[in-house]
Every structure is written in C-alpha cells, then in structure tokens.
Amino acid sequence: MNPAEVTPTSVSGSLDRADTTTVIRPITGWPTLGLGDVWRHRELVWVFASRDVRVRYKQRAVGMGWVILQPLLTMGIFSVLFGRMMKVPSNDIPYPLFALCGLVAWTYFVHATTKSTIILANSRDLLTKVRFPRLALPFGTLLGGLVDFAIGFGLLALALAWYGLMPGWNLLALPAAMGLLIMTTVTSSLWLSATNVRYRDIENALPFFTQLLLFLSPIAYPATMIPDSWRWLYAVNPMSTVISAFRFSLLGDDAALHPAWLVSVAVALLGCWTGILYFRHQEERFADAV
Q1: pLDDT for the residue numbered 16
Q2: For the chain, what are the domain ranges?
Q3: What CA–CA distance (Å, rounded) separates 187 from 193?
C-alpha cells in the first residue's frame, strides 16, 4: 500500500456548519522532512531514548563506568604512544587533556552512529506492526547517547580542574561546536541506518571505517599539522572541525580558526538535510526489508 498524506479540510454543510473532513492523497515525488510529525510524537522519542539507556547498562557489572573507562584508557594509550614516544605536538596543552577533549566528542559520534545504524534492523516488530514516525527510532538513540556524552563531559571538566585550566571567553563557541557535532552525527546515522535495512554489509563494515576515520580526525594530533593547502580537503570530514572547535572553546586551541571550517559546516548542513530526505524516501520499504 502506498503511503498517503492526510490533509484536514473544511466543508460547509446546508446549515452553514463547518465539518472537518480528512482527505487522503498518495504522496508523489520526494516526501517532506516530516519533523513536525516527529515533534508531535516527541514523547515516543523520549521513550526510545530511555529504553536505549536502560538496555545499554542492564546487567553490566561496571554500568556507566564504561563511559568513563573507555576514554580514560584510550587517553592513556594515546598519551604514551603519541605524546611521549612519538612526541606529537599538542599546541602547548598537556597532552592527556588535549587527547581527552577530542575523545569525548569522538566517542559520542561513534557510539551514536553505531547504535543508530542497527536500530532499524533490530526493530522488526515495531516496523511491521506499529504505525509511528520512523525517524523517532534513530532520534531516540541519538538523544540517549547524550547521557554518555554528559558523563564524559563531566570527566573532561574534572580534568580541566586537575590541570588548573579554566575556559575563557572561548567557551561561547561551545554551543556551536555541540550543534555541529549533533548535525554530523545525525547525517551519518540517518544515511547509514536507512541503507543498512537493505544492505547489512553496512554494520559489518562500520567498525573498519570508524577506525579509519579516527586517524583522519585530529584526535591524537592537532589539525595544524595538516598542510594549509590540504586543510580544505581535510575539512570535508566535519569531525575534524568539531574536535578543533571543542578544543578552541574549552582549551583555547586556535587550530579551529581556519576558514576551512566553512566547508565542514556546509557538509554537515547538506548531509543532515539530504539524510532526512533520504531516510523519509526509504522508510516505506523498511517493513518489507527487515
């Protein structure tokens, strides 16, 4: 059955009384973004987010401690390998703090993208039996991931206090950095989740590509190590600007102050918009594909 749009109209009766009539028309061409429908079902998004958080830490001995252990252990490895052995510069910032700042943003991106990629394929009963805006599933996962991000950000705040570094006016750029992080994560999540429903190779290949992207992002090294002539191409990966922007707002690192950040913002905006359209275009096939 083809999807249809429902449009309320007013019809005047013989007694000049207005009745509400629902007109059902088939959708032609590309659908709309459908964000209004998601907003009307925002309680459902919250339910999916709460479920995701509960399931993630159910029957875990360490519980939410994994959110702290993972960036801490990775920070320790990076500090020894890149900071001490390879003497990678950190722009006059203590290397453990330099690495941790990048890892907090990176961890949210990877975990939210990974969970969102498989959420549709793992929700067969919901997709085949219940009518609701399908965008609520990946959006709920992205919202639930903010719990982990908040814990990691709290760890970063403690590290800032430990090293005696307090953000200055640069902190005003933090909302912009957070917005770019969310747009980038939405882009990857929607494109990959909608494609993974039909081609399960996506979830198998995703760990390899996230590892590759890890070294194509300035987590273990500053973006200033990239030659200026290559910064524009480097910025096609929006996470390069996201990480630099977090360091600029929290650590005062000026690596983000390069005009190539415009490329990252343009890629994130275009990717987010087209990702929602692509997801909406594919969603009528989800029930059959899963």
Answers
A1: 46
A2: 32-289
A3: 10
